[in-house]
Every structure is written in structure tokens, then in C-alpha cells.
Write a structure and sequence with these properties.
- The protein is α+β, with helices and mostly antiparallel strands.
- The chain has 2 domains: 246 residues, ATPase, nucleotide binding domain (Nucleotidyltransferase, domain 5); 162 residues, Nucleotidyltransferase, domain 5 (2-Layer Sandwich), CATH 3.30.420.40.
- 39% of the residues lie in helices and 21% in strands.
- This is Xylulose kinase.
């Protein structure tokens, strides 16, 4: 039997997953690490924490599965997108990585828009200047830490730093690279004109490949450290959203995915690049060769529920620990006791600013419409509804871009809750299909590794064999009127609170 390994370098931890060639999960291991917030709106991590989690994860899945390292035919890498990793000539990390949800780069975004122009930026990179993307972070380092900027030999994305550690090769691939805002997504290569206009040396960028291409092989040193076989191929891989989409079978136009992770995403594959002229939806290269994708992003999806749990749920956390119940199961059960519409509370999930449909790093979150009748259950439900309304904003924009919608597949930690799935279906007004691929991004890049290793003919071929629809959640037609009204209130709120 042949096996494939997927590494998914997330925000809260790295998941290592081993699959057989039929896509069955053999063994997984997850190891966590810290996120640092030196100032409000800043977010950083130590890249060597990611590497340590990868080494532990690889060793754990090989040891516990009993699979021979020589039977692992390929490794795929996925990870949080947009993070800036600075590496010097000795391949050492210069400073902590500034990660995807960091919002410090507003001035740099204004500068990019001034120099390049908003329309031209969207035409080249598929997006307006965004605080979360890598380019604005690089410019921030140039402006604020010139001594660190001078030391730069290469800049890498989080998963591409792990590739460097595994293979000693500097490389990236189109799906993650197009979230850096330096790639021309039309040609699927670095934009010489943009780099020239912003005075950035192209030599600091890694070579860019299609996502299924073998970019390097495991070194002898790493083989000893991890128990992998020397020369195991490592493919390009994909940014977490493109990887998760492949794990969900979103590889051709018509099938949409919505994911409720730390952030929330609505994702659609397209045969040609499609653009929102305001840049409210991201247009990026897909990890499927010759395809693109559009995606809307809610910054604070699962993050909102996690924040609420940490801040207001000490009693519930204690109860869940005593009863041996998952705290999120307990919270979503509480949400189910509240009425649709949360007895008047409307939650705006802007804890880290917002991306879609409001490109606004400064907007703050809110609970609106609170009255004396409200209880804890209402607040929990309002979070599930508020995040779902934000995801509906994303879906509405994608529909406006004339993207065909035949099926919506749902995944991510939040989607494991039957309560949240039902709320999402009711608010979307579409049936949602869950997919068995619970490993999401790790499975997606394992599939890419399988294509690179010659196990599958193509990404589409692999997904047709591996990814199967599971449970179907139908929307409750009786709630259409209620949610239409609350959605109108939700949409009217941003213009009223954005300057607070």
C-alpha cells in the first residue's frame, strides 16, 4: 500500500495526517503553539514553533501507524496564508512571522494604492491593497525595521518555511503566492512591473511552481530527525483555503465550499479569473493547474466563539470539564435554546477588523439590540448567526460575480456542530452538504502530493475517487422571513458603527 502525508500549519497548531491512496485517514497528530500580540491589532508567531510541531507530528504518525517510511510516497504542505517569514543568508529566521490576521499595515496599503493604483492592483493581483497580505507587511518592515530588512535573503510563507526545513529548497506555489500580492495571477508568476514600481528586489522571492509539482526532497538530516525516508518528494502544496477546498472536492465550477475555522471562508473554483471591481472578494490562483478561485473571508468566525468562551464562559468551561463534554458542544446546545434572531441581539464579528464585504482593519465588533430579556443563550446564538450573516455577505458577492452555484459543501470546526450547520443553511437559504474529509487541508495537500508522485492522474481524478458527500442539511423555509429581516438589520449596522 502507498501512503501520503499532509502537513497543515494552522494558526493554533499544526496537524500532521497520514492517508492511504484511497484517501482514508490512517493516523493524525496535532501540536499547538502560541500567538503573540505585542500591540492591539498585531499578530505574530515564531516559525520555529511551527517546525517543532511538524517534527513531533511526523514522528508521532509514523510511529503510531506502523507504516514503513519508504511507503510514504509524497508530502504535501498547507498552511495559514499571507504570513511573512524573513530568512537571512544562513537560513535563520530574522524576526517573528507577522501572520495573516495582523492589521498594522494600513499606511503601507495606502502607499501601495497611491503608487500602483487600486484598479491596476486588482487587475494584476486580483485584490486591492490589503493589510492582511504579505506585501504590505514586507513594506512595514522596510519602513519600521530597516535593520531587519537589510538582513533579508529570502521571504517565505509559513508552509514554505517548513519546506525549507524539510528540503533545504526555497520554493512556493501559485495558490499561496497569489495571497502575497506580488504575483500576477493572470500569468501565474511574479509581477516584474509591480516589484519595480515598489522598489522590491525580485531575488528575495522564492521560485514559484504549480501546486502539484515536486519542489524538493527530504534531506538526510531531516530524515534522521523525523524518521522519514531520505528523498521523499515534497510537492508545492497549497494555501490553507485552496488545500481545504481540494479536500472538499471544490475543483470545478459549480461546487462552492463554506468553511468555519478560526476565520470563515466562502470559496468557489472558476475556469477563468473573475474580479470584483471593489476587491471585496479575493481572486487567487487555485491549486488545481489552470484554475482560479474566488473567496470571501470573515476574519472572526470560530475566533468569535473562542473569544466568547474565554471571556464569558468560565462556569460553562468548568461544567464541560466535569461532564467530560466538549465545551463547544455545550455552547451550541445553549444556542439551540434561544430563538432564531437571538431575541433581538445582532452580533457583528469584527474582532480583528473585517475583509469581506468591508475592507476595514479598524472596525470593531459589537452586540446590538441587547435588552433585559436577553440571557447567555441569546448571546451564544447571536455569535453563530452573526458569523453566518457575514458568510452570507460573501456568498451574495460571489453570486453577483455570476459564479454558478449547484452545491454548497460545508466544513471546518464550526461545521461539526449540527446547530451551527442548521443556522447556516437557514441563513444561506441553500441546502448544505457535509463532506467526510474531516482532515480538510491536510487531505487536500496529500492529494496534491499523490498527483506529484504519479499515484493519481490529476487533482480532479483524485477528488472524484476520494471525496464523497455525506450528510445533507436542508434550510427551514419557515425561518426565511425571520432571517431576511434580521439580515437587513445586520447589513444596516456597519455604516452606523464603523466610525466608533
Amino acid at each position: 500500500m502507498r501512503y501520503l502525508l499532509g502537513l497543515d500549519i494552522g494558526t493554533s497548531g499544526t496537524k500532521t495526517a497520514l492517508f492511504d491512496e484511497a484517501g482514508n485517514t490512517i493516523k493524525t497528530a496535532t501540536f499547538g503553539y502560541d500567538l503573540f500580540q505585542p500591540q492591539v491589532g498585531w499578530a505574530e508567531q515564531n516559525p520555529d514553533d511551527w517546525w517543532e510541531a511538524c517534527v513531533k507530528g511526523i514522528k508521532a504518525v509514523i510511529e503510531k501507524s506502523g507504516v514503513q517510511a519508504s511507503d510514504i510516497k509524497g508530502i504535501g504542505l498547507s498552511g495559514q496564508m499571507h504570513g511573512l517569514v524573513l530568512v537571512d543568508k544562513a537560513h535563520k529566521v530574522i524576526r517573528n512571522s507577522i501572520i495573516w490576521c495582523d492589521q498594522r499595515t494600513e499606511k503601507e496599503c495606502d502607499y501601495m494604492t497611491e503608487v500602483i493604483g487600486k484598479e491596476r492592483l486588482i487587475k494584476i493581483t486580483g485584490n486591492p491593497a490589503l493589510t492582511g497580505f504579505t506585501l504590505s507587511k514586507l513594506l512595514w518592515v522596510r519602513n519600521n525595521e530597516p535593520e531587519n530588512y537589510e538582513k533579508i535573503y529570502k521571504i517565505l510563507l509559513p508552509k514554505d518555511y517548513i519546506r525549507l526545513k524539510l528540503t533545504n529548497v526555497f520554493a512556493t506555489e501559485v495558490s499561496d503566492a497569489s495571497g502575497m500580492q506580488m504575483l500576477d495571477i493572470n500569468t501565474r508568476n511574479w509581477s516584474d512591473e509591480l516589484l519595480k514600481d515598489l522598489n522590491i528586489d525580485k531575488n528575495i522571492l522564492a521560485d514559484v511552481y504549480e501546486s502539484v509539482v515536486v519542489s524538493g526532497k527530504v534531506t538526510e538530516e531531516v530524515a534522521k530527525l523525523t524518521n522519514l525516508a531520505v528523498d521523499t518528494p515534497v510537492v508545492g502544496g497549497a494555501g490553507d483555503q485552496a488545500a481545504g477546498a481540494i479536500g472538499n472536492g471544490i475543483v470545478s465550477e459549480g461546487i462552492i465550499s463554506t468553511t468555519i475555522g478560526t476565520s470563515g471562508v466562502v470559496f468557489a473554483a472558476t475556469d477563468t479569473p473573475r474580479f470584483d471591481k471593489e476587491g471585496r472578494v479575493h481572486t487567487l490562483c487555485h491549486a488545481v493547474p489552470g484554475k482560479w478561485h474566488v473567496m470571501g473571508v470573515t476574519q472572526g468566525a470560530g475566533l468569535s466563539l473562542n473569544w466568547f468562551k474565554r471571556t464569558f464562559c468560565a462556569k460553562e468551561v468548568e461544567e464541560s470539564e466535569k461532564a467530560g463534554v466538549d465545551i463547544y458542544d455545550l455552547l451550541t446546545e445553549k444556542a439551540a435554546k434561544s430563538k432564531p434572531g437571538s431575541n433581538g441581539i445582532v452580533y457583528l464579528p469584527y474582532l480583528m477588523g473585517e475583509r469581506t464585504p468591508h475592507i476595514d482593519p479598524n472596525v470593531k465588533g459589537a452586540f446590538l439590540g441587547v435588552s433585559l430579556i436577553n440571557n447567555h443563550d441569546d448571546f451564544v446564538r447571536s455569535i453563530l448567526e452573526g458569523v453566518s450573516f457575514s458568510l452570507k455577505n460573501c456568498l451574495d458577492l460571489i453570486e453577483d460575480m455570476k459564479v454558478n452555484i449547484e452545491e454548497i459543501r460545508v466544513s471546518g470546526g464550526g461545521a461539526e456542530s449540527s446547530v451551527w450547520r442548521q443556522i447556516l443553511a437557514d441563513i444561506f437559504g441553500y441546502a448544505l452538504t457535509t463532506v467526510k474529509a474531516s482532515e480538510g487541508g491536510a487531505l487536500g495537500v496529500a492529494i496534491l502530493a499523490g498527483v506529484g508522485a504519479g499515484i493519481y492522474d490529476s487533482v480532479e481524478d483524485a477528488c472524484s475517487k476520494i471525496v464523497k458527500g455525506n450528510l445533507k442539511v436542508e434550510p427551514n423555509a419557515d425561518l426565511k422571513e425571520v432571517y431576511t429581516k434580521v439580515y437587513e438589520v445586520y447589513n444596516s449596522a456597519y455604516p452606523r458603527i464603523k466610525d466608533i
